[in-house]
Amino acid sequence: MPPPTSPSILEVRGAISRINAEGVAHFDMEMLRALPAARLETTTAVTDGVRRFDGFLMRDILAHVGARGTAVTARAVNDYAIEIAIEEFDRFDVLIAYEMDGEPLLPGDKGPLWMIYPRDQHAELQDIRFDYRWVWQLRWLEIR
Amino acid sequence: MKKRARALLGVALPVSAIIIFVVLLAFSLMRLSDLERDMRIEATQNMLWVISRAHISSLQLGEAVAGSVAGEVDPAQMELRYNVFLSRLALLDDGPQRRRMEALGATAPLDALRGSLPELGSLVMSAGTETMPRIRALLVPYNVALTEAANKAMVAEWDDLGATLDATRKQLWQIIISMVGISLAGTVLCFHFLLAIRDARQRTRLLNKEKAFSELLIGSSGEGIIAVDMDRRCTLWNEAAERLFGHGTRSATGSLLRELSGFFEVDRVEQAVGDALQGRAVALLDQPFFPPHQCDPLYVDLRCFSLRDGGRIIGTILLVSDVTERRAAQREIANHRDHLEQLVQARTQELDAALTRERATADLYRNFGTMISHQFRTPLALVDSALQRLMRRRDRLTPKEVLERGEEARSAIARLVRLVKSTLDAARLDAGQIEVRSQLCDLGDLVAEVCSRSTKDTGSGRITLKLPDGDSPIAYCDPVHAEHILTNLLSNAVKYSPAKTPIRITLADSGTQIECVVTNTGPPEGSFEQEALFERYYRGSNTEGRPGIGVGLYMARALARLQGGDVQLQDSEPGMVRLAMLLPSGASGFASVTDMALRKELA
C-alpha cells in the first residue's frame, strides 16, 4: 500500500495485512476519497433534521487494509474511544463520513471524519447504546 | 322468576367478566406501551457529559496555551486542542444541545465567547506571556458558565429522573391493580367455564340418554320409520321397516331408496317422497305393496314429512304402517253393511207391498160394501115388493098373477144367487183356489159356441163374429176359464152398450198370441177410468141403474193372466169400447206339436 502524499488524517493499526508504515496504514483525504463512495441520509442524536452524509463504508476500509480481528476500537482526537464488534459493520451500512449536506466536515466541528450509523433505516439503532458509537473527529482505528 | 334471574346471571356474569377482562387488559397494555415509550433515553438527556467534555476541552486549551508559552507544546498539538475546544463549543450550539442550554439559562456566556472566537483563535495561535491574561479573561466566564450549567443540568436530570420514576411507579401500580382485576375476572371466567363444562357434560349425558331412548322408540315402533337425505339415500331404517321390506338396518343405511324395494319406484310413492323433499307433507293411504316372496299384496299407509335443520330441508322421514288387517276388517264391515242395507231394502219392499195390500184390502171392503148396498138391496127390494103385493092383494089375485109375481121374485133371487156366486168366485180367485188346466184348444169353436149362447140369451142378433181365414186359431189355455172370460166380456158389452147397437167379435192369430176382441158402442170417452175398469168392485159412472157387482172384468183379467194371457182395454174409434182377450198361441211353445197332433186326431 503506498504511503499518503499529504498529512495522514486516519491511522489504522492492529490485525491488518496491508500497511504503508511501521504496523500502520495511514490515509490522507485523497486515499479515503478513492475508496468506494457511499451516501446515507439520517437524523442524528446531536443535530436537528435529516442530514445527508457522504463517505465510505466501514467494512470497505476494513477490507481495504485486510483486517482479520473481531473488534475495532475507534478513537477520536480527544481520546474518546469506543470498542465495536466487527460483525456489526456487516449487519449495518456504517459510514465514515467526510461530508455533511455536501460540505466537508471541519476539524473545528465534527470533522474531518464522523462515524455515522443508519439510524433512520434501522429502528434498533435508535438507542442510546448506539448513539455513543457516533465517534466524531475520528483519528484512529485499532483492529484486534 | 328465579329461573329468569339465574339465566340472566348466567349470561350477564360472564359477559361483564369478559368486558372487565378486556378493558383492564387494554388499559394495562396501554400503560405498558406508555412505559416502553418513556424508557427511551435521548442523548440530549446526557447533557452533564456534554457539558463536562466542553469544560475539560476548555481547561485543556488553557493548559495547552500555558504549555505553549513554556515551549512544551508544539503548534500542531495546540491546533488539535483548539479544534477539540471548537468542536465542543459547536456541539453545545447544535439544535438539541442549544435548546437544553437555553432551558438551563447558560447561553449568554456561550454567545459572548462565540463573538470573541476570531480574537481567541489568533491569540491561541500566537500564544505568549503577554496574551495569557486576555485568553484567560475570555475562557474564565465560559468555564464558570459551564460549571453552573453542569450543576443545573445535574439537578434537572435528577429531577427528571425522579419524576420519570414517579410516573413509572404510578403506571406500574395501575398495571398491578389492573392485573389483580384481570386475575379476578379470569377467576370468575374460569369458574364460569368450569360450571359450563360441568353443565355441558351433564347435558351430553342427558342427550345421550334421550338419544338412546329415541333409538329404542324408533326401533320398537310397529310402524316402519325410514329417513332419507336429499339424494334419497337411507339414513335411518328401523326394525319394522326391516320386517316390511326384508332388508337389514346395516345393508339399508346408505343405500338409495329405489334399490331397497320396488315399492319406492311406484310413481305415486316416488312423487310423494319428492314432494316431501320440497317441503310438503304427503299421506298416501291404502297403498298396495308386494313384499318379496309373497303373492298377496299388503296394504300400507305412507306418510312423508320433511326433515328440517332450521329453515333448510335436509331430507324426509317416511312412516310406513301395515294396514292390511285393518283394511280387511273394514271391507268385512262394508260387506256386512251392504248386506244389511239389502235386507232392509227387501224388508221395506215387503212392508210397502203389505201396506199396499192392506190399502187395497181396505179399498176392496169399501167398494164391496158400496156394491153390496146397491146390488144386493135391489133384488131384495124386488122380492120384497113382489111379496108385499102378493100379501096385500091376496084376495084379488089370479093364479096367473101370483105366478107372475112369483117369477119376478124368483128371477130377483136368481140374480142375487148369481151375484153371490160371482163374489165367491172372486174370493176363490183371491184365495188361489182356482185351478188352471191349460191344454191346446180350438178357440174358433169356443168363441162360436159362446156367441151362439149369448145370441140365444139376448135374442136380438146384435152379435157378429168374424173368424180368421184358414185354420181355426189354436190357443194353449184352460177352455173352461177361456169361456168364462169371453162370457164376461160379452155380457159386459151387452150390459153397457145401448140397446140394439152392434157388438162385434173378431179373432186373430199373431203367431205367439191369439187375440179375441169384443167391440161395442160405448159411453163417451173419459167417463170411466181406464185401469180402474179392471179393479174389483169398481163400477163406472155409466153403470147407474144396471145390475152388477164389478167383478166381471176383474175376474176376466185375473183368469187370463193365470193362463199366461191378458185382458186389455184397447184404443178404438170414438164412441166405441174395445176389449181384447189375449191368450198364448198353441204354437208359442206352451204346448208341443205332438200334443197338438194328438188333440187334432182326437177331435
Question: What would you say this structure looks like, in words?
Answer:
The complex is a heterodimer of chains A (144) and B (603). With 144 residues, chain A is α+β, with helices and mostly antiparallel strands. Chain A has a single domain, classed as Sulfite Oxidase, Chain A, domain 2, CATH 3.90.420.10. Helix content of chain A is 15%, strand content 35%. In chain A, the strands form two sheets. A five-stranded mixed β-sheet of chain A has the order 2-1-10-5-6. In chain A, strands 3, 4, 7, 8 and 9 form a five-stranded antiparallel β-sheet that branches. In chain A, a hairpin with a 4-residue loop joins strand 5 and strand 6. The radius of gyration of chain A is 14 Å and the shape is globular. The model of chain A has no long low-confidence stretch (mean pLDDT 89). The longest helix of chain B has 89 residues. Chain B has four domains: 220 residues; 101 residues, PAS domain (Beta-Lactamase), CATH 3.30.450; 80 residues; 168 residues, Heat Shock Protein 90 (2-Layer Sandwich), CATH 3.30.565. A five-stranded antiparallel β-sheet of chain B has the order 2-1-5-4-3, sandwiched between helices. A five-stranded mixed β-sheet of chain B has the order 7-9-10-12-11. The two termini of chain B are 122 Å apart. Chain B has 603 residues and is of the alpha+beta class. Chain B is rod-shaped. The interface between A and B is medium-sized, with 17 and 20 residues. Chain A: It comes from Pseudaminobacter salicylatoxidans. Chain A: Pfam families: Oxidored_molyb. Chain A: This is Oxidoreductase molybdopterin-binding domain-containing protein. Chain B: It is a multi-pass membrane protein. Chain B: InterPro entries: BphY/WalK/GraS-like (IPR050351), HATPase_C_sf (IPR036890), HATPase_dom (IPR003594), His_kinase_dom (IPR005467), HisK_dim/P_dom (IPR003661), HisK_dim/P_sf (IPR036097), PAS (IPR000014), PAS-like_dom_sf (IPR035965).
